[in-house]
Amino acid sequence: MSAQVHPSICRLCTAYCPIQVTVEDGRATKVTGNPRAPLYGGYSCPKGRALPEQHYGDQRLLHSLKRGPDGGFASIPSETAMDEIAAKLDAIIAEHGPRSVAMYVGMGLVPFVASTGVAAGWLRGIGSPMFFTAGSIDKPGILIALAHHGMWQAGQPQFDTADAWLLVGINPVISKSPGFPGQNPGRMLKDMEKAQAKLIVIDPRVTETARRAHIHMQPRPGEDIAILAAMIHVILAEGLEDKDFVAANTQGVEALRAAVAPFTPDYAADRAGVSADHLLEAARIFAGARNAGVSCGTGPSFATHSTLTEYLALCLASLCGHWARAGDKLAKPNVLLPGYEARAQPWPPFQGWGFEPRLRVRGLGGCASGLSAAALADEILLDGPGQVKALIVAGGNPMMAWPDQNRAFAALNTLDLLVTMDTEMTATAELSHYVIAPKLTLETPMTTYMPESVKYYGTTRGFPQPYAAYTPALVPPPPGSDVIEDWELFWGLAQRMGTMIDVTMRYGNGPQAEAPPMTFTLDPAGAKPTADRLIELSCQGSRIPLDRVKQYPDGHVFESDQRVLPRAPDNDDRLELGAPPMLEELEQVLAEDNRAVEADYPFRLLPRRTNNILNSFGRRIGKLAGDGVNPAYMHPDDLARLAIAEGECVTIRSPHGRNPGHRRGRGGAAPGHGVDGAWFRRQSGIG
């Protein structure tokens, strides 16, 4: 059969880049960017172009596996695996109750939006509240900060109208982060330069994005808060805030003014190790911009006080009135999400923490970001009523993602039942009792519902224009394989355990919602749905009918003339600039000495992303993994002082463990800092 080229969507990350897939004899042989698709300009990254290697490489699991008494794995039919897993779960629930079963969902379910809803619905169906996600580890602060601050219903002005943008610990050129338009971010930055928009970057590394900035402040790690507080100080001290907006739409500005008073430009510059002149200029540019935005990346979320960083960024935007106003064109009118009426008014703050159920560990309650996955290892290890005995991992790798790998290793090995659904034998899969082999992206249909919906997880997230696309499945799984879609595992378990599945689609952050939740029920006693049917159910009530989206195989921008409406006459909600928990935390930051270092641990370790690796993806694909060693980056001055040569193996050690690394260039680090790349194995001395 001759080669055919089909449009599709790469779903490895939330950018969801449009791609062209060459198919020969039922196999995908080549992937490139789609030049016909709007927004993206034909962009694709090395990971997307490696989809054929992911689908057909030796690292892929083509059959589910069961661990034997000797620790080895043998193939098991997926239906038999579900029979055995369901029986074990029934026995565990009978002895320990539903709360003894937990689920952890990772980034691997990003390509399959319906799967997360089905998984959560199955867990609710058996009566367990123990649902955990990777989002509670890598970026929990934004949703909690929005709960403290409130959210502007109309969102920000259109991205292409901005004449300034502030990026805090975010490198969109590499990460395609949803905090900045991920649709060909390099081109987006070039377009900003052409429009003479000013880019301000706060990042302890000289990143690919920082090199394009009008101002790059390279602080000591963890000092983003001092810089943001000082920018607020300058804006208030110089009267640069949007006084009309602040008076009409906010409260707590005087409390905020008092809290940031100690963060003078000189103090913050000295503390953070940046230029006071740059700090002053950045504050004045941001306040003086007609339209501007601020985005915080995953980097600040790995530091302490991450919620406070996000909160101060929101306060900065609100002080300057950088929100869409009545009469403005609505930037995100939705496509596959329900249409909504946007007004120039806030959704007010709400208490975004302390929800039931509470964990047994440290009395932690649920929060706007869900239950804390960082405490899940302790929930497994802590004896007594409510102890987690069974864990299902869907598209995640907790052995590599949870803090304290020694504790994670002990916890995962303690479980009576560990089931992992993943495409390859990850560090977590190696510890599992069952490993379920799933279908991959080119073997399944999907829409852009997921990246459109990330607008609910941060004010600068989501598509910059009302774009949507649909792709059918393009290729069958490899001959002789036994792979299932992620959601089919939970459908199969529900069938065997006699439970219903209620799938709930939410359209906001708690009460800050554009529309009420929509729930549909799957009855495993009835006919099994197809993946396309689940997509249809998920898109019920969309502004643009799914059938119309399907008419554009390359994707389409569904323009809307919808305008932001004025504030409702009876509305007096306010954005909160003086949330007491946040200002109390800012006072704690003031008392901390972030410059202190321990003699045995004189370096600060910075995380970074690489263009070829995304979380666990790419480590076993030759063209992406390269030599497969852990890269370690340091400043030339430190290398000279320690006499470390290029390519030399070093041991990176902390009070919590150690890992090998190979010296790889500078990595944008300042003196006294190390930068890690993609870890290719669990830390030394474990297992």
From TrEMBL:
PROSITE patterns membership: 4FE4S_MOW_BIS_MGD (PS51669)
Extent of Basic residues compositional bias: 655-666
Entry EC no(s): 1.1.99.1
Highest taxon in the source lineage: Bacteria
MF (Gene Ontology): choline dehydrogenase activity; iron-sulfur cluster binding; metal ion binding
Keywords: Iron, Iron-sulfur, Metal-binding, Oxidoreductase
4Fe-4S Mo/W bis-MGD-type domain mapped to chain residues: 3-59
Stored SUPFAM superfamilies: ADC-like (SSF50692), Formate dehydrogenase/DMSO reductase, domains 1-3 (SSF53706)
Location of region: Disordered: 654-677
Gene3D superfamilies linked to this entry: 2.40.40.20, 3.40.50.740, ADC-like domains (2.20.25.90), Dimethylsulfoxide Reductase, domain 2 (3.40.228.10)
Name the UniProt record assigns to this protein: Choline dehydrogenase
Species annotation: Sphingobium fuliginis (strain ATCC 27551)
